[in-house]
Structures are given as structure tokens and as C-alpha cells.
Amino acid sequence: MSEPIDVPSSVVLVVGSEQFTPPTTFEGLSCAASDDCVAVVVSSPLVVDFAGAAPGDATVDLGTFTLATEGQLSVRDVYNRGFESAGVEPGAVRLTVWGDRADEPGRIVVQVHPD
Prior knowledge:
Blueprint: E1 11-15, E2 31-33, E3 37-41, E4 47-51, E5 60-69, E6 72-77, E7 82-87, E8 91-99, E9 107-112
Parallel strand pairs: 4-9
Antiparallel strand pairs: 1-3, 1-6, 2-3, 5-8, 6-7, 8-9
């Protein structure tokens, strides 16, 4: 498990490219996506991990998305500072975001699905 990070706002972004477009609305959900960015409403401090399988502990499925990538997924704050990253195949990547709770999770796991 990663070290907790202090995030300066209540939103973190999972992005697939350097130039990305954040979603315009959450529509009342904790997690929303555009073609190349997933935004998650979180609490701070936050623990972020990448995984190849669903986490085995008590977690909530915040959403499954397909993201366009350039070969790297990274978790960033709204000021574009990077925290965690994982190499992936360039192109469309399917991922699920898991949280330790449905509203403002303090831990998220980004599960990258195999092709």
C-alpha cells in the first residue's frame, strides 16, 4: 500500500495523457469520466494504489471506465501535480475505481483490466 498523500482539494484525477479534458460534471456521483480523465471526489490524506485485480478488502465500486492513454496512467491533483503512476498499453484502457467508502474515500484503488 502506498503512503498517504495530502491533496489540496477534494478532487483527484486519473489521466491517460499529458493533455486531458476533465469531466464537466459529477451528476451527483463520487466518480465521473471524460474520454481521457477520471475525476474522483476524495478526502485527504488519501492513499492511492494501482492493481491488476479487484481489491480483496471491503471496498466500493465507484465506476468502470474506458480511458484513452498514451501508455501511462497517472493520479494527479487539480493543480496537475502527479502522485502515483502506472505503465499501460497505449490506446483504450478499461479501469475500475474502488474506494474504501462511496462518498469521499480516503483510499482508492485503480484496477487496470487486462485486454
